Amino acid sequence: MDCPYCHKPMEPGWIEARCERLSWTPYGEKKGPFRWSVSQNGVPLGEYYFFQGAKIPADYCPHCGKIILAGVPRRPEKKDTK
Ligand SMILES: [Zn+2]
What we know:
mainly beta, four-stranded antiparallel beta sheet, two-stranded antiparallel sheet, binds zinc ion
């Protein structure tokens, strides 16, 4: 795919973690105590396997340094924190 920022070709690859779950965490939240934890309003990235960790497809732009993740699930309805 072409980079949506600089419109040059991106390189396909992966972002991987050994043993840990990958997740996006909003500012002000913590991931949690376990290696498979995701914060309250966080978004898990890729599949997670206890002994293998996590892996998600990602395209990297060597021209501007952006990374685009593929297959990120939509976050469930945001939880009310009141
Ligand atoms: Zn770019």
